[in-house]
Amino acid sequence: MTTRVASHAGSWYSSRSSTLSSELDQWLSQVPSSIDGKQLPVPDARVIIAPHAGYSYSGPAAAWAYKSLDLSKAKRIFLLGPSHALYLPGCALSAHAKYATPLGDLVIDKGVVEELQKTGKFDVMSEDADETEHSLEMHLPYIYKMLSLSFSSPSEYPGLIPILVGNTSPAKEKEYGAILAPYLSDPSSVFVVSSDFCHWGSRFQYTYYLPASPSSAASSNPSGISLRRKDKAPTNPPIYESIGRLDRMAMDAIETGKHDAFLENLRETGNTVCGRHPIGVVMAAIEVLEKEGKSGEDNKGRFKFVRYERSSEVTEVGDSSVSYASAYATL
């Protein structure tokens, strides 16, 4: 019975339980009690997208997704995050029995993990790979906090199923989506998708820029240019507005509910959405439910973005920023 240590506590977020709990409470309290006329949590909002950067950057944005999340029927929580350090063509599961947080431990749902392993489609993370990856860990304190607000004791908390998603092809994303669709259709399953959005700057090898022009403004998929360090900083629009437009295009594609539309957007812009593959897997799973007539009424299974922020407002070509977005989907 092994426990994954909270390897990023003390650096990416506070290792002091009292400090961490207070920070999470503060960020959650800053989110309105309703969004677009819908009281939070949004009924049947069982799927969210939320960022995974250090909490000083992404903690406030993530609160919008977590406060939207409906845990009233939850019996298991699937957590899908991208692999940053481990090359992985598919998906991998954890070998641990628990995941530690400064607030308390989350118990792995070994039954579901074993069911997924029996498909023969999942690798198993090594202990080192598991503890190196931050995309899963950064959601654990928020998950624990939300469970503590929804259940009377830790013994009642839903089990966790962490899934590390590698550099999956579109076909692989559809394959994993089909595997996860039956779990997604279960009203007692919750899915948390870990993703930051645009990583802009030469240090990320992404300096794509959308100039303002009548032709580009009228097109949902305009052509842009890659800026070089020696280029004069553009002002029409400023770089940060171009980044915002690139992210909005990606978010619009996700909100269509069409997996292929999201993939097409990424092909056209190259936007460095680091959780593109876990997002793709879940979008593919939702499409399976739609084809089977299990996604319910109109707009069920459609993501709704509720918050968007950037780490800084880039104006110079040598600057950089990372974008953070939060969304929910009802099922």
UniProtKB/TrEMBL annotation:
Spans annotated as Disordered: 215-234
Signal peptide: none
Pfam families per record: Memo (PF01875)
InterPro entries noted in UniProt: MEMO1_fam
Domain of life assignment: Eukaryota
Annotated HAMAP family: MEMO1
Family named by the database record: Belongs to the MEMO1 family.
PANTHER family to which the protein is assigned, alphabetical: PROTEIN MEMO1
Protein name stated in the entry: AmmeMemoRadiSam system protein B
Organism: Amorphotheca resinae ATCC 22711
